[in-house]
Design goal:
The complex is a heterodimer of chains A (about 850) and B (about 425). Chain A has about 850 residues and is mainly alpha-helical. Among the domains of chain A are: about 140 residues, no CATH class; about 140 residues, Alpha Horseshoe (Leucine-rich Repeat Variant); about 130 residues; about 160 residues. Chain A contains 42 helices and no strands. With about 425 residues, chain B is an alpha+beta fold. Chain B folds into two domains: about 220 residues, DNA ligase/mRNA capping enzyme (D-amino Acid Aminotransferase, Chain A, domain 1, 2-Layer Sandwich), CATH 3.30.470; about 90 residues, OB fold (Dihydrolipoamide Acetyltransferase, E2P) (Beta Barrel), CATH 2.40.50. In chain B, strand 11 and strand 12 form a beta hairpin. Classes of the chains: A mainly alpha (about 850), B alpha+beta (about 425).
Chain lengths: ~850, ~425
């Protein structure tokens, strides 16, 4: 039943386009007409050592693609397809695959190991192919080195592919034993050792039980540490990657080894090649991540129920770690500030230093200050840059009390350096450091402000001047201005020291956006971001200037749309996105207070016309920004938004159909909500189309799951807007809500991400019920909802019993109880009285500490008492 | 198994401004949805409650300043609060005159006083409705006339630039204006930011009042945008400690009796038995009615309305009949149906059988003051009567609150029959 496919596979890689196309067509036909034979033939080709390397490789690749795909829905299809094939055929294919591991061809071995892992990825979770691990490992020691290597690679891919719970502990033990033996220095073949180290990296997640066993853990750790000393740089690097993975997976088991690991990493940072040294630094960054998380979660207050205690590894290693990291800062690359993709030891070391500062706080300051003082004025730019970077790195973490005197002292120095230092590196880092000072040590909440009316003018002048510098320095100056403005965000309508310079700042930022070289170093983006923040933090005094800014930005957007007619490119689209974003911030700011809204409304028609033109471009980012801005506009405009609907509607529908750029879809769903609240019953003529699209979205398995909860909430928005007119959608919407509710009622065994998603889904469903019940209130058609009441109450009861709702869901859920009672009244009285929710759940919510929950519960109690008493 | 990318964000913020915009939009939408939901929950039922006719007249007290406007107000067409808030002049006066909830006088102690009731010390002063809307605040006395027009920190209570939320949304508070410290003591909340609380239980209204009022800054001392200070009144559960606290506790205002509010009762315009007023000499200067000279008359006086067939009635709905005048006497004294007539209660007193008035010894004094808008209520007459004969004392109230507690603790004795 195997077909001869060699020639087709070779033709499919031919230079001749026609030949290639023909071959691809043949393969497609073969696959569609006889899948079993197709797969078997490919496996045969891959296994046959007499065939050309090219055809074997492609055969393996096509096989792999027949088993897995990136898109979730396609992946599910392929899995189902494989599972439904004849078991005998599958056994034959699998035998061919396993045989290929011993092939003399390195390409064939390496390809087949991935194919085997894909098959395992499908079958192991279904308790099929139980003999796989056994047969891979049966005589691994006696195998020739190339086959040993391929076998270890296969194990690595399998561990990457399947989740730990589908492999039983006995097999895990065997895998780990084989892998760790492969890493051992007694293994003479470096390819085998490398394959083993990489396999261990993937297998670490399976080793929970082994890491809990002192002896086994000691053994694994000893071998990993030894492997970091291998003469082969690839093996050393892979071994450090394992250490990094261990630092996050088994943080709580590291105490006995931390001293040794410090020695190993310190040596690597000092002496080893950069790719290895980077991993060594990453180990400590990763430990910082862990300790920051732990300290944030428990606030340093550890009790018996803390999951993982903090071992304060960073604090203990501090006096050795900090000098090691400071040393790396002097190893900058000449052009790292211009190269977007750069990542070197100085950057990694500085980043790690920043994390260490966040982990230990004040303790880091005395260890870093001498380095700064010694180097900040040296003639060598590397020393000045390193000192400045060190200072910028430690500004987050230590207390304001500790930092304020230092920052106040350094401020003038930095401002001068930004103007006068001859090195662009130093200026770049200096501007960034100023931004960090403003980000962490400036704001209305701090006791002693570092920025006073006295020095504000100088700061603004220097930053504006610096915006004319080379793009990477100007970008950082814009960033510093962003945080300077942000510090006044909470100042409210009180006068801000920035007010006198508002006009100059806005002008300077607009000038930056027009620079010829503004596309370099994200400069233009940084300028618009700073402009947005300046707008967000404007106050009563500066609002008139924001009103004047609106037509300027509109003109910019108009110009890009005109240019687009001539030529359309990435940058044009990116700029449109930035301009729409800026307009969104302006609309939201001016729309939030009546007098400014009044002034702004004169531009509404023009602005809407511009947004609609943006939808003609093909950039998802621009669409997303325009849609967000339209949502803000609908909110500010209110019922008058109706006049834009005829034109806007088709883009709304287009957004709802955009499965691929699911962010656009999600944002459009949110905007439907904005429009519903703005138009209320005037949205009715558009509801058939919108509801059809939303229902389609929900039943699609192509749409990203994160969009589904907002769609349910959107049902509620629509129902609330159109009231009893929602009647005709009940038949479709209610069963969808009901089945989603059943699915989301239980989370047992799910991980944190899944629980979080389930809660957002529940919230969406509940918001839908709320809107529907409230929408029908007082209508003669109220009784249409009666048949759904038992299910809704049951859903609330099961949520209550499940005990894993977050506060948001609790608040929405108890509100739905009230909405149901409020709308259905006495006819639902007996049902309500039977439900647990109306008793225990309500009682719990009434005594909640969360005032939003309490508020909803009070309201529900009132509605229920009315429903029951009449 | 390709090598893993280690790069971390370098000299750049972790969250892009675009992400920030997205998050802020989501927050705004969630907030707007909550507002819309709350609006639906509270507003939609308002219209219903206000469509009911309000026929009960406000109950006057002798010591209140009386307004020389005795014409019986025509019933204005039924409006909801939104429409009413736009009324001007006489129309507004007529409408607001009917909107206050008035307590009955406590002539016997309700059951479950300790469980179902709140108690608080009533501030002495002018009862009024305070409405904030469209950048101004107006207080209206019980007859609907304006007491003050002023800027306040209540929602939309002053014209300022940074006000948030729709300017036309109104708030209505039930207050007593206390002259001495020029403070509005808020005793109830009727509407808040456009949400009607008419249909809400007192328990909820007080909860809402407590949590919302302070948020606005209305309780701050007076300032340019805030002419009068507003203040909350301490409200207690009517158990023993609550009752004692209300009765003896020190408050910054002069007390005028105690008010009892049933926890489950809605805000009902007119006289309601679900709110009660009680006074004694310790907690009020105005226990017994005074005449126009401020003197307590020797005999209790009552004002009754003369109705068809000479019946003398209270202002209650349905009215309680105290007696009957014969046609000759009416003709002689130029009395006609609708007149308010003043009587003294004579030696024979009031005779009650099973809580119902059987006989009243009434001595005609004359027509009532022209300023009087309506007759006395039955509960007021009875309270005044009992004050003069067998007053309901604080000890009786405390006793009833205690006995409730005793009852629940009471152990049943079982007789041993051996």
């Amino acid at each position: 039943m195997a077909m001869e496919v060699t020639q087709i596979l070779l033709n499919a890689q031919a230079v001749d386009g026609a030949l290639r196309k023909q071959a691809e067509e043949n393969l497609k036909q073969f696959q569609e007409q006889n899948l079993p034979s197709f797969l078997y033939s490919l496996a045969g080709e891959l296994a046959n050592d007499e065939k050309p390397a090219e055809s074997r490789k492609l055969a393996g690749l096509i096989l792999k693609n027949a088993l897995d795909a990136k898109e979730q829905h396609r992946k599910i299809e392929l899995v189902q397809r494989w599972l439904s094939l004849d078991p005998t055929l599958k056994a034959q294919i699998k035998a061919l695959l396993l045989r290929t591991l011993s092939s003399p061809s390195v390409d064939a071995r390496s390809t087949v190991s991935q194919v085997i892992a894909k098959v395992a990825g499908i079958e192991l979770p279904h308790k099929q192919w139980p003999e796989l691990i056994g047969s891979l490992l049966s005589n691994v020691h006696q195998l020739p080195a190339p086959t040993r290597q391929a076998t270890l690679e296969t194990l690595g891919y399998i561990c990457e592919e399947v989740s730990p719970d589908v492999v039983d502990q006995d097999h895990v033990n065997k895998i780990l034993t084989a892998v760790v033996q492969g890493m051992n220095s007694t293994e003479e073949n470096n390819d085998v050792r490398l394959a083993a180290v990489r396999a261990l990296y993937n297998a670490l997640g399976f080793a929970q039980a082994n890491f809990s066993n002192d002896m086994e853990r000691d053994y694994i750790m000893r071998i990993v540490c030894e492997t970091t000393l291998s003469p082969d740089v690839k093996i050393r690097r892979a071994a450090f990657e394992c250490l990094v993975a261990i630092s996050s997976t088994y943080y709580e088991k590291l105490a006995p080894y931390i001293q040794d690991i410090f020695n190993i990493t310190a040596k690597a940072v000092k002496e080893d090649e950069e790719q290895v040294a980077l991993q060594a630094i990453e180990f400590w960054s990763s430990i910082c991540d862990e300790e920051i998380d732990i300290l944030e979660e428990y606030g340093g207050d550890f009790s018996a129920d803390s999951d993982i205690p903090c071992f304060y590894f960073i604090k203990q290693a501090l006096s050795f770690l900090v000098p090691m990291l400071l040393e790396t800062l002097l190893k900058q690359d000449e052009d790292q500030d211009q190269d977007e993709g750069a990542w070197n030891i100085a950057m990694a070391g500085g980043t790690c230093l920043g994390l260490v500062a966040r982990t230990v706080g004040d303790d880091i300051v005395p260890l870093v200050m001498p380095f700064i003082q010694e180097n900040i004025s040296k003639p060598d730019w590397r020393q000045r840059e390193a000192a400045t970077y060190a200072f910028g790195s430690i500004l987050e973490g230590p207390s304001p009390e500790k930092l304020e005197p230092l920052v106040t002292m350094a401020l003038n120095f930095m401002l001068t350096a930004l103007m006068k230092d001859p090195s662009n590196h130093v200026k770049d880092t200096t501007a960034w450091t100023l931004g960090r000072m403003f980000e962490f040590l400036h704001g209305t909440a701090l006791d002693t402000p570092i920025i006073t009316p006295a020095n504000c003018q100088q700061i603004v002048t220097v930053l504006i001047q610096s915006m004319k510098d080379v793009p990477n320095v100007a970008e950082k100056a814009c960033g510093a201005l962003y945080f300077l403005a942000q510090g006044y965000e909470d100042a409210g309508s009180a006068s801000s020291p920035l007010t006198p310079y508002f006009q100059d700042i806005v002008q300077a930022l607009l000038t930056v956006t027009h620079r010829e070289d503004a596309v370099e170093s994200r400069l233009r983006t940084a300028a618009y971001e700073a402009l947005n923040e300046v707008v967000r933090c404007s106050n009563d005094e500066t609002a008139p200037m924001v009103v004047q800014l609106a037509p300027l930005i509109m003109l910019e957007l108009h110009n890009t749309l005109e240019n687009q007619k001539v030529s359309s490119d990435e940058r044009q689209n990116e700029l449109q996105g930035l301009l729409c974003g800026c307009l969104q911030v302006i609309i939201q700011k001016l729309g939030s207070s009546e007098p400014t809204k009044y002034h702004f409304m004169q531009y509404a028609d023009q602005i809407m016309a511009l947004f609609l033109k943006v939808f003609a471009s093909r950039s998802a980012t621009a669409h997303e920004e325009a849609m967000l801005a339209i949502g803000a506009l609908a909110y500010a405009t209110g019922p008058d938004f109706a006049k834009y609907m005829t034109e806007f509607y088709k883009y709304l529908e287009m957004g709802l159909q955009n499965f691929e750029d699911y962010q656009v879809c999600a944002i459009t769903v949110g905007v439907v909500g904005d429009v519903c609240r703005a138009l209320e019953e005037k949205i009715l003529p558009y509801c058939d189309g919108i509801m059809t699209q939303l229902l389609k979205d929900l039943s699609s398995n192509q749409l990203h799951r994160s969009v589904k909860p907002p769609i349910f909430s959107c049902f509620g928005d629509i129902a609330l807007a159109i009231g009893e007119n929602f009647e005709k959608y009940l038949l479709y919407a209610m069963p969808m809500l009901q089945s989603a509710a059943e699915l989301s009622a239980h989370t047992s065994g799910a991980d944190d991400d899944m629980t979080e998603y389930t809660n957002s889904l529940r919230n969406g469903i509940l918001e839908a019920y709320s809107g529907i019940f409230q929408g029908f209130k007082g209508s003669p058609k109220t009784q249409l909802l009666m048949p759904y009441a038992p299910h809704v109450l049951q859903f609330l009861d099961s949520l209550y019993m499940e005990k894993d709702m977050d506060d948001v869901v609790t608040k929405t859920a108890i509100g739905v109880l009230g909405d149901l009672a409020d709308t259905l009244g006495s006819s639902a009285g007996p049902l309500i009285q039977q439900s647990v929710s109306s008793k225990d759940f309500l009682k719990e919510c009434l005594s909640s500490d969360d005032h939003l929950i309490k508020e909803s519960a009070e309201w529900a109690k009132l509605a229920i008492s009315r429903a029951i008493s009449f | 198994m390709a090598p893993h990318d280690l790069r971390r964000p370098f000299k750049r913020p972790l969250i892009s401004d675009q992400e920030k915009r997205r998050q802020q939009s989501l927050l705004r939408q969630a907030q707007n949805r909550r507002d819309a939901q709350n609006h639906a929950r509270f507003l939609a039922s308002t219209a219903l409650s206000l469509e009911q006719p309000h026929e009960l007249e406000p109950e006057p007290e002798l010591h209140d300043e009386l307004i020389p406007d005795s014409e019986a107000p025509e019933s204005p067409k039924e409006l909801d609060v939104v429409e009413a808030s736009k009324l001007k002049g006489a129309e507004a006066r007529k409408w607001f005159a009917k909107q206050l909830m008035h307590p009955e006088w406590m002539i016997d102690i309700p059951e479950n006083l300790s469980q179902d009731w709140f108690v608080f010390a009533r501030p002495s002063g002018k009862r009024c409705f305070v409405v904030s809307c469209n950048g101004t605040t107006i207080s209206r006395l019980r007859n609907g006339s304006i007491l003050h027009r002023f800027p306040s920190e209540l929602p939309n209570g002053a014209r300022r630039k940074d006000s948030s939320g729709p300017a036309q949304s109104y708030s209505i508070l039930d207050c007593i204006f206390h002259e001495v410290d020029q403070t509005y003591y808020v005793i109830d909340m009727v509407c808040w930011r456009g949400y009607s609380l008419y249909d809400c239980a007192a328990e909820f209204r007080f909860f809402w009042l407590n949590s919302k009022l302070a948020e606005t800054g209305a309780c701050e001392p007076p300032s340019h945008y805030h002419k009068y200070r507003f203040s909350l009144v301490p409200v207690y559960c009517c158990d023993q400690s609550g009752l004692c606290a209300a009765y003896t506790g020190s408050v910054p205002y002069v007390k005028d009796g105690l008010l009892f509010y049933n926890k489950h009762a809605h805000y009902q315009t007119g006289i309601t038995p679900l709110a009660l007023v009680w006074k004694d000499e310790n907690c009020s200067q105005y226990v017994m009615d005074t005449d126009s000279k401020g003197q307590v008359p020797n005999q209790q006086q009552v004002v009754l309305e003369l109705q068809e067939g000479g019946k003398l009635c209270t202002s209650d709905d349905p009215p309680v009949v105290f007696g009957c005048l014969d046609g000759g006497f009416m003709h002689e004294s130029e009395l006609h149906s609708g007149c308010l007539v003043r009587f003294a209660i004579g030696e024979g007193g009031l005779v009650l059988v099973d809580g119902k008035l059987e006989k009243a010894d009434l001595n005609y004094l004359g027509k009532a003051n022209r300023a009087r808008a309506s007759a006395d209520s039955f509960s007021k007459v009875m309270f005044q009567y009992s004050v003069r004969h067998s007053p309901l004392r604080i000890d009786d109230l405390l006793g009833s609150v205690n006995s409730a507690a005793d009852e629940s603790n009471k152990v049943c004795d079982i007789e041993m029959d051996g």
